[in-house]
Design goal:
GO molecular function: scavenger receptor activity
GO cellular component, one term: cytoplasm
Helix content: 25-40%
Distance between the termini: 19 Å
Number of strands: 18
Shape: elongated
Protein name: Sensory neuron membrane protein 2
Organism: Drosophila guanche (Fruit fly)
Keywords: Cell membrane, Disulfide bond, Glycoprotein, Membrane, Olfaction, Receptor, Sensory transduction, Transmembrane, Transmembrane helix
C-alpha cells in the first residue's frame, strides 16, 4: 500500500512545487510592479488639485494651524550702546501664535492645470504654549521704525534736507527718544504697533506725512492720525498677494509650484543679469509656498520653496531618512547657497544690492557670509541672517554679546513624507536685523559703534498633530504595510512551499521511488 501511495505523493509534490513557484512569481510581480504602480496612481489622484476633492479642501484651508514662534532680542545695555559700547542682548520667548491660513480661490484655468488665489493669514496668541511669557512683557528692543527712516533718508540723496529737519524734530516725530531703542511691550512690537507721530505740528507733521506716504507695510495709520510700527500687524487679516500655482494636472511633479505672483513670472526685486533686463537667478520664482511639496521624493534630490516675506526662492537639500510617529520620510535643509555663499564667485551677485552706506561689508558691495540685504524687498534697511547669526561671518558676530548659535535650534529644515510630499514636521527659521551706526547730522547716533543689531528671530513651522497622523496612517501607511505583507507573504510563502516540495521530491527520488506515469 505504501509503495503505491508514495509515487502519487511525489507526483503531487511536483505540482505543489510548481504552484508555489507561481505564487512566488505572482507575489514578486505584485510587490515590485503591480502594487507600486497602483500606489503611484493613487497618490497622483490624491495630490492633484481638482475642484471639490479632499486635496482641494485641504489646500483651501490647512487642516491644522502652523506654529509661529517669535523670539525677541532684549537689549540690556541701551544707555551704554549710545556711548559706543558693544550691544548685549538676551533672547526672550518664544511668543507662540497659531497661524491659520485660508485661501480665497479666484478661478481655475480653462484646462484645469492652474489655480489662482489670495491667501488670508490670521494669528492667534497661544498663551499656554508661550508661558511663562505674555504679550504684555516689557522689552527694550531696536527702534526699527526710527532707524529705518534715518537710514533711508541718509541713503537717498533726494532726502538729504530731510535729515536736517529730522534731527531737530526727533522729539516730536518719535516720542522724545533717548536712544536707538524703544521701551515697549511684546504685543505692541510684534502686532498692535508702537505708536509715533502723535499729534505732530509744523515740520514734524510734514515729516510724518512723508513717512506715511512711503507705503511701508510695517507702518500703519491709526484712527487718531498717528502712525504705528509692528513687525507682523500687516500680515494679520486679509491677504493681498495673488498667487497662481500648478494643480498637478498633466504633470503631477509640478503640483503646487508657484507659476505667477501678482500676475508676473519673476520678481523685480533683485539685480538683473544684464542692462537689457534679462531675469537673474535671484529674481526667479521657484517651488511651492512650503505648505506641501511635489510627491515621489528621491534620496539625494533637492526642492525649492518660495518665501514672499524675504522675496526669494530657497533650495532645500536632502539630508537623511527620518521617522515621525511611525511615518517614514526624508529630511531636507537649506544649503550654503542660502545666505552663506553669495557674491560674484558664486554666480549670484544679483543678491548684492549694495543699498547701505558705511556698513560692515566687502569691498565689492556684498555683505559678508551669512547676511542678506532685504532693503529692496522690504523697502527698509533690514538684514536677514539665521537665528543668533548661525554660520555668519565673525565680522558680525564679534560685535554682539549674548548670541548663542545652535544648529539644532536655529537651522531651517523640513521632514517630508516621500511618497506624497506631505510635510510632517519642520520650521523656517530666520532672523531680522538692522545695522546700527552713526548717521551724519543725527545727534542721537553720533557715538554709535557700527554693528549688525539683531531685533527678532522667527520660526514658522508645522508638526503633524495626532489627528492628522492617524488620518495619514489610515489612508496611506497602513495600506502600504498591508500590501507589503501580501507581497512578502506570497513571495516567501510560495517560495517556501516550492522549496519544501522540491526537496521532498528529490529525497524520494534519491530513495529510488519514481513518480507514476500517466
Amino acid at each position: 500500500m505504501l509503495q503505491t501511495t508514495t509515487p502519487k505523493m511525489i507526483h503531487w509534490s511536483l505540482i505543489v512545487s510548481a504552484l508555489g513557484v507561481c505564487v512566488a512569481i505572482l507575489g514578486g510581480y505584485c510587490g515590485w510592479s503591480l502594487f507600486p504602480n497602483m500606489v503611484h496612481k493613487k497618490v497622483e489622484q490624491s495630490v492633484i488639485l481638482a475642484d471639490g476633492s479632499e486635496q482641494y479642501k485641504r489646500f483651501v484651508t490647512l487642516p491644522q494651524p502652523l506654529n509661529f514662534k517669535v523670539y525677541i532680542f532684549n537689549v540690556t545695555n541701551p544707555d551704554m550702546i549710545q556711548h559706543g559700547a558693544i550691544p548685549i542682548v538676551e533672547e526672550i520667548g518664544p511668543y507662540v501664535y497659531k497661524q491659520f491660513r485660508h485661501k480665497k480661490v479666484k478661478h481655475f484655468s480653462r484646462d484645469g492645470s492652474k489655480i489662482t488665489y489670495v491667501q488670508n493669514v490670521h494669528f492667534d496668541f497661544d498663551a499656554d504654549a508661550s508661558a511663562p511669557y505674555t504679550q504684555d512683557d516689557r522689552i527694550v528692543a531696536l527702534n526699527m521704525h526710527m532707524n529705518s527712516v534715518l537710514q533711508i533718508s541718509e541713503n537717498d540723496p533726494g532726502l538729504a534736507l530731510l535729515l536736517v529737519h529730522l534731527n531737530a524734530n526727533l522729539k516730536a516725530v518719535f516720542n522724545d527718544p533717548r536712544s536707538m531703542f524703544v521701551h515697549t511691550s511684546a504685543r505692541e512690537y510684534l502686532f498692535d504697533g508702537v505708536r509715533f507721530c502723535i499729534n505732530p505740528q509744523g515740520i514734524a507733521k510734514a515729516i510724518c506725512n512723508q513717512i506715511k506716504e512711503s507705503g511701508s507695510k510695517t507702518i500703519r495709520e491709526q484712527s487718531d492720525g498717528s502712525l504705528a510700527f509692528s513687525f507682523f500687524g500687516h500680515k494679520n487679516g486679509s491677504g493681498h498677494d495673488v498667487y497662481e500655482v500648478h494643480t498637478g494636472k498633466g504633470d503631477v511633479m509640478k503640483v503646487l509650484e508657484i507659476q505667477k505672483l501678482d500676475d508676473t513670472h519673476n520678481l523685480q526685486v533683485w539685480l538683473n543679469a544684464s542692462t537689457e533686463g534679462e531675469t537673474s537667478v535671484c529674481n526667479q520664482i521657484n517651488g511651492t509656498d512650503a505648505s506641501a511639496y511635489p510627491p515621489f521624493r528621491q534620496r539625494g534630490d533637492s526642492m525649492y520653496i518660495f518665501s514672499a516675506d524675504i522675496c526669494r526662492s530657497v533650495q532645500l537639500f536632502y539630508q537623511t531618512e527620518i521617522q515621525y510617529e511611525g511615518i517614514p520620510g526624508y529630511r531636507y535643509s537649506i544649503g550654503e547657497n542660502f545666505i552663506n555663499d553669495i557674491g560674484p564667485e558664486h554666480d549670484n551677485e544679483c543678491f548684492c544690492v549694495d543699498k547701505l552706506a558705511n556698513v560692515i561689508k566687502r569691498k565689492n558691495g556684498c555683505l559678508y557670509a551669512g547676511a542678506l540685504d532685504l532693503t529692496t524687498c522690504l523697502d527698509a534697511p533690514v538684514i536677514l541672517t539665521l537665528p543668533h547669526m548661525l554660520g555668519a561671518s565673525n565680522e558680525y558676530r564679534k560685535m554682539i554679546r549674548g548670541l548663542k548659535p545652535d544648529a539644532k535650534k536655529h537651522q531651517t529644515f523640513v521632514d517630508v513624507q516621500s511618497l506624497t510630499g506631505t510635510p510632517l514636521r519642520g520650521g523656517k527659521r530666520v532672523q531680522f536685523n538692522m545695522f546700527l551706526k552713526s548717521i551724519n547730522r543725527i545727534g542721537i547716533t553720533e557715538n554709535l559703534t557700527t554693528v549688525l543689531m539683531p531685533a527678532i528671530w522667527v520660526e514658522e513651522g508645522i508638526q503633524l498633530n495626532g489627528e492628522m497622523v492617524a488620518f495619514f496612517k489610515k489612508k496611506l501607511i497602513n495600506t502600504l504595510k498591508t500590501l507589503n505583507i501580501v507581497h512578502w507573504a506570497a513571495l516567501c510563502g510560495g517560495a517556501g512551499v516550492a522549496l519544501i516540495s522540491l526537496l521532498y521530491f528529490l529525497y524520494q527520488k534519491g530513495r529510488g521511488v519514481e513518480a507514476p506515469l500517466k
